Amino acid sequence: MWPILTQSFSRVIAVDFLGFGFSDKTIGANYTIMNQADHVSTLLKAIGVKNVHILSHDYGDSIAQELLARQNEGVSLFQIESACLLNGGMFKETNFPRPIQKLLGDSPAIGRLISKISNRYLFSFGLSQVFGAKTQPTEEDMYDFWCSYCIRQGYLNSADLLQYIKERSTYNLRWRYALAQSQVPVHVIYGPSDPVNPRPFIDFYREMVPNGSIDVLEESIGHYPQWEDSNTVSQLYIKFINSVLK
């Protein structure tokens, strides 16, 4: 998606949240969604960005919802012009974490022990379950994902990161109303072959966010639409942005 985004916007910022990608991955750090939202606000202030369009996925959806909640309350440090969310646990009622996620997240101490025995093959098996049957990553892709996951021994902090699952219960209503009460356009691009956020999400979203909009992709697209069908997702996102800007 990167080429299309950089051609369509004068500036594109991709954030590696604390604990992800090339960012610090300190075991026991504050990986709460609230803290991550603070980091985004601090980053944008530091680089002088005052207006943004948000495009998020999964973990990033919860951060986007918290940022929208702050804007609704009039305490945001910047202006969100629009928000487009891809597959993620926007609503507790339609989100079903994988068994390994719940196992790792229920107890950080036990989760850290389990993380130590993680390996490339267990990782690949688990991750493949959330892709569509026709859009599975190749073995080479999975190896790349694993290597990215292991940067700075990131696999050791999985249990700490997964505490966001509990936060989605704690802040369920706050983050739901962040979308429902948003004064800026909210859109979802959704892959329906997603065991974490299955098809009942569609009707629930339409009921909870009546002013929002949604594009449902082909039945074969799973939890990672930006990877499984990047061209279509890019086109739909640009279409949404054009509708916001016109």
Write up what this structure looks like.
The model has no long low-confidence stretch (mean pLDDT 94). Strand 1 (51-56), helix 3 and strand 2 (79-85) form a beta-alpha-beta unit. The chain has helices at 2-8, 33-46, 59-72, 99-106, 108-116, 120-128, 139-150, 158-161, 164-170, 172-180, 200-208, 225-228, 230-245; strands at 51-56, 79-85, 186-190, 213-216. The chain is 50% helix and 9% strand. The protein has a four-stranded parallel beta sheet with strand order 1-2-3-4, sandwiched between helices.
Q: Which strand order does the major sheet show?
A: 1-2-3-4
DSSP strand content: 5-15%
User: How many E-type strands?
Assistant: 4
Calculate Rg over CA atoms: 17 Å
Task: Tell me the quaternary state.
Answer: single chain
Layout of strands and helices, then pairs:
Elements: H1 2-8, H2 33-46, E1 51-56, H3 59-72, E2 79-85, H4 99-106, H5 108-116, H6 120-128, H7 139-150, H8 158-161, H9 164-170, H10 172-180, E3 186-190, H11 200-208, E4 213-216, H12 225-228, H13 230-245
Parallel strand pairs: 1-2, 2-3, 3-4
Task: Compose a concise summary of this entry.
The protein has helices spanning 2-8, 33-46, 59-72, 99-106, 108-116, 120-128, 139-150, 158-161, 164-170, 172-180, 200-208, 225-228, 230-245, and strands at 51-56, 79-85, 186-190, 213-216. It has a four-stranded parallel β-sheet, with helices on both faces.
Keywords:
single chain, 246 residues, alpha/beta, four-stranded parallel beta sheet, 13 helices, 4 strands
